[in-house]
Structure formats: C-alpha cells, structure tokens
Design a protein that fits this description.
Blueprint lengths: L3 H24 L7 H14 L2 E2 H8 L3 H13 L3 E5 L7 E5 L1 H22 L4 H14 L1
Antiparallel strand pairs: 1-3, 2-3
Length: 138
C-alpha cells in the first residue's frame, strides 16, 4: 500500500519534471514576454472569467497587490481587459481579450506537449484512470 508520504514525493517529482518542460517551452515562445506568473495569471483568468481581481488573487494564493502589478502588465500587452460589473459598479471584472485567447491557445499547446512527453509511456487505460482521478481533484 502506498503511503501519502510516498505519493507526495512521487507527485512532486512528476510536477517538477512537467514544470521544467513547461518553462523550457515557454522560453522558446512569444509568451516568454509575460513570465511564468503572467502565464499562470492568464490561465486563471481563462478558467474563471469574468472575475474580480480579488477572486483571481485568491485562486492563485497571491497577494492582491502582486496580482495588480501582473494585471497591469497583461493589460498593457492587450491580453486582458477590465470592465465594470453590472451588479456592482465599484467592481472591475477581468477577462481575456482576443489576443489573450490566442496566447491561451499557445500555452495550451505547450501544456499538451509536456503532458504527452510526461505520460507517453501510459496506455489508454492508465490515461483514462489518471484523467478520472484528476477530475476528482479539481
């Protein structure tokens, strides 16, 4: 029987391997311009848009001031846009622009390449099991 401690170590190794692969491919793409935290922010916005800044900061487990700086950088590059909430005019909602969606497509291709490289030795049954488990963890 696998212990949680053993599982933690094995999962850490896989995540670090995947992280290195993602960073390497990002360095070779146009998204290198926004850095790893900018990429994570775009992905978070993509999954939750439109969303207020505080919600994005909470989802990323970052301080609101840190995220504000990143949001401004993404906004200057026309990757995201802010609009006022219909429910509360004091709240700005953040969403991807067309260019932001295009960059998400690039990041998704990078992630897909890394996932393929990482799990290529698994057969279809193993991949199905892994996908089912990951769905439970989301």
């Amino acid at each position: 029987m696998t212990s949680y401690s053993e599982l933690a170590r094995n999962l850490d190794r896989v995540v670090r391997r995947m992280d290195a692969g993602v960073h390497g491919l990002i360095q070779q793409s146009i998204v290198v311009d926004i850095g790893p935290v900018g990429v994570l922010t775009l992905l978070t916005i993509s999954d939750n848009a439109p969303a207020p800044l505080q919600y994005i900061a909470d989802r990323m487990a970052r301080d609101k001031s840190q995220i504000t700086k990143i949001i401004k950088k993404l906004e200057r590059r026309d990757l995201i846009a802010r609009r006022l909430s219909n429910d509360d005019g004091r709240v700005s909602l953040i969403e991807l622009t067309r260019k932001g969606h295009d960059w998400i497509d690039i990041v998704t291709d990078i992630l897909s390449t890394v996932v393929t490289d990482t799990f290529q030795h698994l057969d279809q049954s193993d991949l199905k099991d892994l996908s089912r488990i990951i769905e439970k963890l989301k």
